[in-house]
Structures are given as C-alpha cells and as structure tokens.
Amino acid sequence: MPASKRRKTGSNASAATAQRDRSRSSSPPNDENSPQNSNNGKRKVSKIGDIAPHAYFCIHRPLFDYKNENLDSDNGPRSSEDFWKEVYAPSHNAESKSNKIFQPASEHPEWEWVMMADAWDKFDLWRRRAKYCDPDNFNMYIYNDWKGYGLQEIIECGLAEFDKGFRKKGEKGRDEMWAAISALGLWLKDGDDGDMMMFINCEDGPTTGALNGLMGFALLTVLDAIKRAGELKRDSKYKDLARVIGYWLEWSHDLPNYGIEGEDVAWRPYVVTYFKEADLDVKKGTFLTEKMLAKLENAPNYSKSTISHVPDLESKADDFRDDKDPPIGTEQDPWAWKERIGRWKKQKGGKLGGQHYDITKLSRAERAAHVLVGEKVDPLKDVSIKDLRNNLLDFQ
Question: Positions of the region Disordered (predicted)?
C-alpha cells in the first residue's frame, strides 16, 4: 500500500486504508534496502475488479522456495545473511521491476509463479490475521498459547471457506475449494516460521493433529473434484496444480517428527497418487516437489521414535481416526468430506473458526488491561474501530 495511506500505530504496526493489499507474496528480509521497504509489488491496474476472483495473476516466487534452493545447496550462499544479500533481495526486486507482478497470467504465459486472485486475497488476510493473534506484536501478554489457539482458529476459517465451495455445484464450487486450499497451502509454507511452530506446538495437540488431518482430506476432496471435471492433467485450467500439491507435501513431510502422526497424516500417499495420475511436471511444482513425492509415496504415518517404542504399530494409509465408525464416502464425495466436517462442526458446537483470539477485535479496555510493559493504554488507540473491524491493520 502507498506509504501515504498508512498511519503509524507503534514501532511495527500501521493501518491501511486500501481495501485489498497485494503488496507481498513472501516474507522479505528486515533490512532498509530490502523489498519490504521499496515501492515494488504494487498492482499497476487501476481497479481492484480488473482481475476476476478465480482468474490467475503473476506472483513473486515465495521466500521458502528460494531458501530451499539456495540455503541447502553446495553452490549456494552459506549463511542467511549472504542469502538475503546475494539471492533473495535482488531476485525479488528484479521480479518487481518486471512490472508483471499481480498482472493477468494470461498476458504473461512464461511467468512460472501464478495464483488465483481470490486465493491471494485469502492468503494475505490469513497472513495478517496471524499477526493479529500474537500478543507480542502489541506489547501484550494474555497467556502462553493464545497465539497457537488463534492459528487453529484461522485454519478453521480456511476450512469453512473450503466447505462453502464444497456445498456449491459445478465449476464455481471447485474454484472456491481450490482457492481456499491454495491459500492455506501457501500460508502454511510461506507464513512466518514462528507462526507455524506456534500452531504445531500448541498445548492442544489433539486439535492441531486433527486439523492437519482435516486439511489433508480437504486437499484430497478438491483433487478428486478436479479429476471428475476432467482437469487433473498437465494442461489443467488450474495452472498451479503441481505447485499447490508441492506446498502441501512440503508442509506435511516431517509432521510425524512433531507428534502429528497416524490418521492425521494418512492422506499424504494419496496426494502423491493424484499427482502421478495427472502426470504433472515436477518442474512446475516447488523446488522440493520431486524429492517430496519420492519421500511420501510409501512413507510411514509414524515417526521412527514412535515405531521403535511400538513396533507393531500400523502405519498404513488407511489408518483413519475412528476405526469403529469410519466416515463413509460416496461417489460424489469419496473422501467423505461432508461427514468429516459435519463431525468436526458438531464437536465444536456447530461453528467453524471465528475471531475470539483476534486481538484487534478485543475492546480497547481489554487490550489495555493486558499491556505487558509501560502505561496500561490500548496499543491500538490511534487506529479507528472501522479499520480494525475491516482487518486493515498491517505491520512494517
């Protein structure tokens, strides 16, 4: 957003007056010469509606993919500092100077990194909302796992968006499901590393694990819908098919090492099967997609440590949550999404997501009461209620 349209709320926060901010697609380095502080990455079109919600536009190559290619490479920079200076900042700026970022993908068929406009908007919103549930961003303390629960809540909001698409018929429903799963995948991979560890390590481990399982079955559900529509193929209308699958394989490949095991990761080999059935080009995925496909095709659903303690533990991909009463799929819903999400909603009192852990939605008095150091004053006292209500707070 233009600097003139931002108002300071503290050392690291500002309220944007623009309705839609598409100014970043990855986490740039915190350096005065970094892409974060340049004027690149802004949309050049005059109207927000110039790109339809489910049309594709060009985006920056995400930070995590640059890292994967360079930080572990024998020929790449040895340190993070060298990486920022020698690789990421110049590459990100060169992409911006191309004047193709956020322009229609149809006008730039050679551009490799593309995303649905609606998927980007969801990603950008969830990225900001992750910051809204972090008390550290507001010089506040509420309790230790506040942020972890907030991230669970945001993921539920993403699954609610997916479910809305699932309940619609035809292409529109598929597009909405794909936008949600694409946005979740990019956010999980390209969000702040600390955010994702707070999610994984939240004290409510069973919910974290189950949410990973639900997200996996959402991915399988939309892949099957795409297959039934005849679009599970190399030249699919879903231009980022290989790349989005790559996000999810990278996200899930080491989850068992963090205690997210069994039925909560049992979906991974089936995703590999869909990728191979579509004969997708691994070069159209992420940098590590080919490696992840090989790793997860026959991967156990438990960590080596768990299996060593319980050697007869089943690790097959048909290991689902409730063996006594497994969800039953149908021809139109083979992965039983309707039943799975229905059970989850019932367990959660009929509602998905919400804004309970969104600090910007607390009252001014509530925020002031939790200020950690200094005067007990609302840290967002200079931001209007309207801007807070509309999720227009961003951080520098």
Answer: 1-45
Listed residues 112, 138, 156: the one ending a domain: 112
pLDDT in tens, 156-188: 999 999 999 999 999 999 999 999 999 999 999
Bridge partners (DSSP) of residue 14 are 8, 394
Report the number of distinct structural domains present in the chain: 2
Name which residue leads in pLDDT, 40 or 386: 386
- Pair (88, 133) in one structural domain: no
Torsion from C-alpha of 353, 205, 201, 149, nearest 10 degrees: 20
What are 256-292's pLDDT values in tens digits?
999 999 999 999 999 999 999 999 999 999 999 999 9
What span, in angstroms and rounded, lies between the C-alpha atoms of 168 and 266?
Answer: 27
DSSP 56: E
The closest of 175, 181, 169 to 220, measured between CA atoms, is: 181
Judge whether 172 and 179 are in contact, CB under 8 Å.
no
> How far apart (Å, rounded) are the C-alpha atoms in residues 156 and 349?
13
Q: By residue range, what is the domain housing residue 308?
A: 116-396
Q: Does residue 3 form part of some domain?
A: no
**Residue 140, burial from CB neighbour count under 10 angstroms (0-12, 13-18, 19+):** buried
Measured CA to CA, the distance from residue 396 to residue 28 in angstroms comes to: 11
Choose the final residue of a domain: 112, 134, 156: 112
